[in-house]
């Protein structure tokens, strides 16, 4: 018996909450319904139609991502029929793009299409014809590669920019097969409202929008390793995955499950990490001599010198004259030690950080 | 607002987009994208003034390509069927429509009246349309117009109107055939104010030109239907969404609305003392998909005209997310006569157990093209041969389309159908908006199918994958540039694409388009075989 909040999902009665879609319920029950235009953070769009499921009483399969569950529905998520449709859809999608295989450094979601095409064995070469995308090689911004030859018009980038970033920098132009992702008047991103937050890059399921900085390291040998940490730049506390190959940073990706950011970052957290491995980065302390020139010194010498400076100020003006500013580009541990020094060392709360974003 | 700039400057400039974007608080990138969606918005001079020549499926039969060639010097561009198939070929110069079979004979003339009913059957929507002066308020009144509405307003309650319409069996004449009474009932009961009545006058389906005839020659009938709908549902505002290609109709409608306002039938007290109903005309900008009701609503709201996901339906979440009736022109024009003559009268107009009538726009290779109001259930051969004079001398009919192009073809052995939804759906087609295009035995059906599919590809909104990619792949295959060169594999590709489009597309466009290829394969296997094997050697 169907009571108020159950549906029959692939033969078992399952409960659901008011407002849940068929896709969300299926996902909870690990049905692995394929999707391409879906991003759980965004309003469901219903474009790729891969998520279709059979609903008893409906003439056609329904898109599970946009269909709200109602009590008593009988739903089948993986019948031969819908699996066949999914394969045909993927063959069609594969036929409109230059390539399916992209480097994982392109972006967080960049392997989605490849994974599905492989899961459905859809590399059949059927449905050959015109290709739909038009890459913007002229957009020379240093961060985001706009390789629309790989674009499948899933609209995730447009929606993430509007719904999550609130920027409305990009939109769709044209219609039908000529649909293209665009900025206002088709200009480069730099001339648009784009803040280079990178969210569009990391929701893109094909690598059409790609992390240009990370891709510089595509040819570096070695496996990509991800280290979860918190972006040091400001107080929001966005979770990030630092991507490394052989202990070298090759990129940063936002953590989709980061409690503070849910996959969002700003331009600094996303792209401003070059300083870490920069050749001009200081590797030893420098101490200024009487002639005003900075010279390498040992840690002991440098710390003595700093302590002496602090003491001099304290003697002359009292501890209230001391103020500490920690660097946003220093590790969290250093920032912690810095405030400890101020609070425990002098009993002051004269402490700030350079990156009050 | 965009139309104002388009009319003033002849094109929509970047400055204009900037100004409108600020005024309406729409992001520039979104507005820019939306402007590029509509094929009639020019973005560069000379823009709007350049002639646009209809290259719809009927005009192609009668020389549109020659006209296009002749006008190339003036920068002429093709436009999809613009609803003048009974008197072609239309060429749009700014806000003027000229028609003629060659570039030398182009002239401005009003759209044709429906021919007198050859079957002598009682008509509903065409009952008064041929009366002289009918398009004016006085003429309409004099010939019985507004009588049904006036007595409903005077002697009844709104629910009575809903009941009459429900009992009459009137169903949507715009394509989907949803029962009109039930739609009105749902809007009457739905919470949220203000409610809206939208008249769908987008008439983008190739081979359909009935709404143009109704609006040009009987505009008050449509207004009467809208007021009745407003009264029945409690709606305070209404829009007529008119396709770009009917500029003369725009003027006729604006005059008719002013007349109705002057007579207090529209305005502050339209539904009774202190109960307003205000009516505005809004102009499309060239997009077939904007006839799809949820895409139309997005377009009215200035949003990107992708169809919305349903449910929720417009009856609860329509214009500005409030309860909204969307009805076709013909549906609304039927309402006045039904209120005047009663539900039983209308029901009785159909044959057997089919309720009412339907206007068929008949065109192509047929002696007397035109709009014919037929009793539902009429045998197709009666219409083709007895009413409209059959195909040309010495010719036979090879195929007819249904629902304009959306219902695909009926082949030479499938013409024994009756004109009603159950009968046609059983044959894998549907009546829809009632466009029937005739092709005689001289026509290359693969080429006809290619043109039809390229229309759907051109008009696909691009939102959902099966339609966006599928319409293009089918067009390529019908054109012979792409796809396997071996018949079995070719057929399999066509069938697989068609199946996935029919079953998974997000709206009616993508679901209907493959009926073209399906019916082509069903009826014209030999022509297909010649196309696939022959075309490639
Ligand atoms: C692609 C597409 C195009 C449509 N075009 C029109 C149109 O031009 N005019 C129209 O009245 N209905 C059109 N419709 C049907 C509308 O969505 C809607 O069903 C209709 O306007 C409702 O009015 P009715 O119930 O009076 O028929 C179209 C539907 C689809 C899927
Ligand atoms: S980088 Fe951010 S602001 Fe720029 S287009 Fe992408 S989502 Fe929008
Ligand atoms: S660029 Fe990527 S996210 Fe944007 S529509 Fe194309 S495939 Fe989708
Ligand atoms: S079926 Fe075609 S027209 Fe309809 S939503 Fe999909 S792409 Fe757009
Ligand atoms: S996930 Fe449902 S249509 Fe794409």
Report what the structure shows.
Chain A has about 350 residues and is an alpha+beta fold. Chain A has 3 domains: about 5-80, Ubiquitin-like (UB roll); about 90-275, Alpha-Beta Plaits; about 285-355, no CATH class. Chain A contains 9 helices and 16 strands. In chain A, strands 2-1-5-3-4 form a 5-stranded mixed β-sheet, with helices on one face. In chain A, strand 11 and strand 12 form a beta hairpin. Chain A is elongated, with a radius of gyration of 26 Å. Chain A starts with 5 loop residues before the first strand and ends with a strand. Chain B has about 525 residues and is an alpha/beta fold. Chain B has 5 domains: about 1-40, no CATH class; about 50-100, Glutaredoxin (3-Layer(aba) Sandwich), CATH 3.40.30.10; about 135-345, NADH-ubiquinone oxidoreductase 51kDa subunit (Rossmann fold), CATH 3.40.50.11540; about 355-440, Ubiquitin-like (UB roll), CATH 3.10.20; about 445-535, de novo design (two linked rop proteins). Chain B is built from 24 helices and 15 strands. Chain B has a 5-stranded mixed β-sheet with strand order 10-9-15-12-13. A 4-stranded mixed β-sheet of chain B has the order 2-1-3-4, with helices on one face. In chain B, strands 7-6-5-8 form a 4-stranded parallel β-sheet, sandwiched between helices. In chain B, strand 3 (about 90-95) and strand 4 (about 95-100) form a beta hairpin. In chain B, helix 8 (about 160-170) runs parallel beside helix 16 and helix 10 (about 210-215) packs across helix 11. The N and C termini of chain B lie far apart (about 55 Å). At the A-B interface, helix 2 and strand 7 of A face helix 3, helix 19, helix 20 and helix 21 of B. The complex binds flavin mononucleotide, iron/sulfur cluster (3 copies) and FE2/S2 (inorganic) cluster. Flavin mononucleotide binds next to strand 8 and helix 22 of chain B.
């Amino acid at each position: 018996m169907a009571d108020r909040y159950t549906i029959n999902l692939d033969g078992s009665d399952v409960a659901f909450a008011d407002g849940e879609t068929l896709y969300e319920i299926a996902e909870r029950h690990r049905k692995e319904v394929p999707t391409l235009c879906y991003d759980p953070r965004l309003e469901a769009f219903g474009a790729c139609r891969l998520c279709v499921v059979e609903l008893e009483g409906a003439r056609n399969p329904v898109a599970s991502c946009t269909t709200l569950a109602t009590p008593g529905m009988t739903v089948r998520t993986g019948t031969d029929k819908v699996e066949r449709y999914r394969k045909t859809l993927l063959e069609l999608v594969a036929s409109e793009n230059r390539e399916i295989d992209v480097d994982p450094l392109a972006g967080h979601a960049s392997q989605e299409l490849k994974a599905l095409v492989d899961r459905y064995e859809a590399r059949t070469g059927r449905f050959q014809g015109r290709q739909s995308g038009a890459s913007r090689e002229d957009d020379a911004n240093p961060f985001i590669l706009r390789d629309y030859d790989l674009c499948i018009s899933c609209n995730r980038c447009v929606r993430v920019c509007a719904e999550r970033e609130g920027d409305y920098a990009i939109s769709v132009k044209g219609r039908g097969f000529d649909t293209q992702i665009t900025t206002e008047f088709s200009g480069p991103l730099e001339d648009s409202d784009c803040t280079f937050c990178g969210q569009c890059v990391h929701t893109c399921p094909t690598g059409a929008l790609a992390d240009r900085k990370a891709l510089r390291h595509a040819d570096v040998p070695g496996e990509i390793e991800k280290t979860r940490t918190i972006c040091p730049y400001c107080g929001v506390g966005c979770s990030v995955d630092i991507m490394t190959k052989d202990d070298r940073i090759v990129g940063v990706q936002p953590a989709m499950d980061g409690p503070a950011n849910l996959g969002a970052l700003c331009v600094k957290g996303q792209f401003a990490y070059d300083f870490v491995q920069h050749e001009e980065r200081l590797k030893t302390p420098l101490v200024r001599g009487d002639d005003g020139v900075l010279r390498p010194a040992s840690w002991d010498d440098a710390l003595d010198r700093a302590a002496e400076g602090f003491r001099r100020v304290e003697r002359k003006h009292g501890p209230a004259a001391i103020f500490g500013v920690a660097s946003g580009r220093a590790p969290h541990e250093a920032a912690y030690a810095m405030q400890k020094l101020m609070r425990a060392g002098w009993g002051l709360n004269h402490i700030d950080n350079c990156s009050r974003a | 607002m965009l139309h104002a700039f388009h009319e003033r400057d002849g094109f929509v400039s970047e400055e204009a987009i900037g100004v409108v974007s600020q005024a309406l608080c729409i992001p520039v990138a979104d507005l820019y994208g939306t402007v590029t969606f509509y094929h009639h918005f020019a973005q560069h001079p000379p823009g709007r003034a350049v002639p646009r020549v209809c290259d719809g499926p009927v005009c192609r039969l009668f020389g549109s390509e020659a006209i296009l060639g002749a006008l190339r010097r003036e920068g002429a561009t093709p436009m999809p069927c613009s609803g003048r198939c009974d008197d072609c070929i239309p060429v749009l110069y700014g806000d003027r429509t000229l028609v003629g079979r060659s570039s030398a004979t182009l002239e401005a003339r009003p759209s044709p009246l429906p021919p007198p009913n050859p079957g002598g059957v009682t008509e509903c929507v065409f009952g008064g349309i041929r009366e002289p002066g009918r398009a004016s308020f006085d003429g309409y009144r004099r010939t019985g117009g507004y009588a049904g509405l006036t007595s409903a307003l005077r002697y009844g309650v709104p629910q009575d109107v809903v009941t009459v319409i429900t009992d009459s069996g009137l169903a949507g004449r715009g394509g989907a055939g949803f029962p009109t009474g039930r739609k009105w009932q749902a809007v009457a009961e739905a919470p949220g104010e203000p409610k809206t009545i939208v008249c769908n006058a987008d008439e983008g389906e190739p081979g359909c030109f009935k709404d143009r005839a109704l609006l040009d020659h009987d505009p008050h009938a449509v207004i009467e239907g809208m007021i009745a709908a407003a009264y029945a549902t409690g709606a305070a505002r209404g829009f007529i969404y008119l396709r770009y290609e009917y500029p003369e109709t725009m003027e006729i409608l604006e005059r008719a609305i002013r007349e109705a306002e002057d007579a207090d039938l529209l305005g502050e007290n339209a539904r009774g003392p202190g109960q307003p109903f205000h009516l505005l005309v809004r102009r499309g900008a060239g997009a077939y998909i904007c006839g799809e009701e949820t895409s139309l609503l997005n377009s009215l709201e200035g949003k990107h005209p992708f169809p919305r996901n349903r449910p929720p339906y417009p009856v609860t979440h329509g214009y500005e997310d409030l309860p909204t009736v969307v009805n076709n022109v013909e549906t609304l024009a039927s309402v006045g006569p039904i209120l005047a003559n009663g539900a039983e009268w209308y029901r009785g107009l159909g044959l057997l157990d089919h309720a009412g009538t339907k206007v068929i726009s008949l065109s192509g290779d047929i002696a007397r093209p035109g709009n014919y109001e037929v009793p539902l259930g009429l045998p197709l051969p009666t219409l083709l041969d007895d009413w409209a004079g059959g195909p040309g001398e010495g010719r036979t009919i090879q195929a007819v389309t249904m629902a304009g192009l959306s219902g695909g073809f009926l082949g030479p052995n499938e013409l024994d159908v009756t004109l009603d939804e159950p009968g046609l759906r059983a044959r894998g087609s549907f009546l829809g908006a009632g466009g029937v295009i005739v092709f005689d035995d001289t026509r290359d059906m693969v080429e006809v199918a290619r043109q039809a599919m390229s229309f759907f590809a051109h008009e696909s909104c691009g939102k959902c994958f099966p339609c966006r990619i599928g319409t293009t792949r089918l067009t390529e295959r019908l054109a012979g540039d792409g796809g396997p060169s071996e018949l079995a594999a070719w057929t399999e590709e066509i069938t697989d694409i068609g199946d996935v489009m029919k079953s998974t597309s997000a709206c009616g466009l993508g679901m209907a388009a493959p009926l073209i290829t399906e019916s082509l394969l069903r009826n014209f296997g030999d022509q297909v075989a010649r196309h696939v094997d022959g075309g490639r050697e």
